[in-house]
Each structure stands twice: as structure tokens, then as C-alpha cells.
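User: Before I run my own analysis I want an independent prediction to cross-check against. Here's the chain; please return only the C-alpha cells and, at the end, one sentence I can use as a sanity check.
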Amino acid sequence: MRITASTVSLTVEDIEASRDFFTEHFGYREQAAAEGFASLTRDDAAVDIVLLRRGTDVLPPDQRDKHAGGLILAFTVTGLEAEEKRLRSEGVDITMPLREEPWGERLFQVTDPNGVVVQLVEWITPDHA
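Assistant: C-alpha cells:
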């Protein structure tokens, strides 16, 4: 098997709100859309995002009423502090402030209008390494 692309599918209440959040603040663009569906992509290595409206009948019956919860959509980036400053200046609420873990992970989180947690991460060499 050879994986040629990766996509995460998120079931949300308001597709337009999540679509606008990811296109405005994270550089995604809509590549396809229909009633209850939007597909977002970028030109770099970022994962593609499919947004499905909660309750849509394209989902199996046991998945229709579930919501994208309990997951973190994490993007490894460069220039983490600049990204945090940019998002803050754009009015995005930083829901977990910038912090550094002892193992070398620097991160912060924002949350989209449907409750999808987006974490930006930058890896550094820890001081004790």
C-alpha cells in the first residue's frame, strides 16, 4: 500500500462556520461542496479536511448524530510564536495558551466555532537533552 494523501472527516453542526474558520485562519480552500458537505485542502503537506453536517444521510445510521469531539487536529508548524500572535490579532480565541513541555513540544490550541480543537505544535530540543 502507498498512501497518497490524508484526510480527516469531521462531523459538525455548522459546516459553513468551520469552513470559514479553516479558510480564513489556516489557509485552506474549498475544493468541493454540496448540501451537508465541504472538502477543504491546502497546497502543502497539511491533512485535507472533510466537513459533514451532523445528521446527514450519507453517514451510516449509527454515526449520523455523533459530533467531532474528543479529538485534537494538530498541525506541526514553524514560527509558532508568530502564528499565535497572528491568530490572536485576527480575533481567534486562544483556548490553551502557548506552553512548552519538558520533552520539547511547544504548543497552543484554538477551537473552531463547532468545538473542533486545533493545536499548533513546534518541536524543539529540550534543555536537558
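Sanity check: The longest helix spans residues 15-26.
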